[in-house]
Amino acid sequence: SVLFAFCALNEVFFIALYLLSFSSPILSPALLQPIPNSLASSSQPGSPAHPAPSTLFTNPYSAGALELARANKMDSFWPWVIAGISFPIMAGKQFINLVQLVKASKWLAEGDIEIRRAQGLPKKKS
Fold it and tell me: Quick check: pTM over 0.70?
């Protein structure tokens, strides 16, 4: 159950990062596109600064149109909360992964050395 909790919260952290990539201008500065001065007075929907989604996507049910609709409606508060709660678990899991990687690498190297010794490798040049 502890392993499941670690794995689940690790995945939840990366899901929160994915959601933040569409909703947080802190992580995605492209969401903070300034409107040029010439178009600032006409920031009404339908102006060239804000084209209608139907002009961008021919099919309103395409992946791009659905992403645009979702991104424009999502608030970044809850993804930040979820990321903040799950970050310590994700960091702990990544540390455990690093420890396992180092131990497994040493174990494989030691096994490789033993096999090479048993085969008489490397052969001494005479």
Answer: no
